[in-house]
């Protein structure tokens, strides 16, 4: 049996077509939500179902916006998805467009504990997107420049508005942009690790969500945690995969 898992997020909507019998991903789609979650979800479903009617399982902030056979929380979905991909993972750091989640799971993918940072945008996809836009560079340029750092700058503010001002000020004062960018990533990573102390990180650690594609943030987290992070081939679709895996029909 084939099933479609849909993760309707604030920044992106993701869909996975999964074969339950073969236990494999057949296809997946990722599109920007762009404040049109229902429309974008339907576009993804049409692309995945290819004139067939498959069960639809939803997750994410917009999981109740479209017709579905079942739904589940994003935290449960992420846990199921990662456990399928990498059963040795015990802690997941999920960095989405609007929030950061840290999830502890057992060897079956069951959630043991979790903690979220959903009141402050610092470190989220939106945070970095705004910073990159203010600098007038692309995400690809950001990823290239951030890894050229030698001496990370000390960043005092992580408020979305204040960090832009501080970053621009440091660059205008002559600091290397790579040092400034990695300084931001290091400051964000420290805040994430501090948040994670509430549930005590257990290795191995996976990084999921759009934040997993931020090479500076990945590097900073690896330095602070002292281990190489487990990153899925497509870190954006983990929750959608977990939604599909949850279907019992």
Automatic annotation (TrEMBL):
Protein name: 2-hydroxyglutaryl-CoA dehydratase
A molecular function (GO) term: metal ion binding
Matching InterPro entries: ATPase_BadF, ATPase_NBD, CoA_E_activase_dom, Dehydratase_Activator_Redct
Domain of life the protein comes from: Bacteria
Limits of the ATPase BadF/BadG/BcrA/BcrD type domain: 4-245
Matches recorded under Pfam families: BcrAD_BadFG (PF01869)
Transmembrane segments: none
Record keywords, A-Z: Iron, Iron-sulfur, Metal-binding
Cofactor: [4Fe-4S] cluster
Native organism: candidate division WOR-3 bacterium
NCBIfam families: CoA_E_activ
């Amino acid at each position: 049996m084939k099933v479609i898992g849909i993760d309707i997020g604030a920044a992106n909507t993701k869909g996975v077509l999964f074969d339950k019998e073969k236990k494999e991903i057949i296809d997946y789609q990722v599109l920007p939500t762009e404040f049109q979650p229902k429309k974008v979800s339907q576009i993804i479903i049409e692309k995945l179902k290819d004139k067939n009617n498959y069960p639809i399982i939803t997750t994410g902030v917009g999981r109740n916006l479209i017709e579905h056979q079942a739904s589940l929380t994003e935290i449960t979905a992420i846990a199921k998805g990662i456990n399928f991909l990498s059963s040795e993972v015990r802690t997941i750091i999920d960095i989405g467009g609007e929030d950061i989640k840290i999830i502890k799971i057992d060897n079956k993918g069951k959630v043991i504990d979790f903690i979220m940072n959903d009141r402050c945008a610092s470190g989220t996809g939106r945070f970095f997107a705004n910073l990159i836009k203010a600098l007038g560079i692309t995400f690809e340029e950001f990823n290239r420049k951030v890894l050229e750092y030698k001496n990370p700058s000390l960043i005092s503010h992580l408020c979305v508005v204040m960090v832009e001002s501080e970053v621009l000020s440091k660059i205008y004062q002559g600091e290397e942009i790579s040092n400034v960018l990695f300084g931001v990533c290091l400051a964000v990573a420290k805040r994430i690790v501090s948040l994670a102390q509430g549930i005590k990180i257990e290795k191995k650690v996976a990084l999921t969500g759009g934040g997993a594609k931020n090479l500076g943030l990945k590097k900073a987290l690896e330095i602070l945690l002292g281990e190489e992070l487990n990153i899925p081939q497509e870190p954006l679709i983990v929750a959608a995969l977990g939604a599909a895996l949850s279907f019992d029909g």
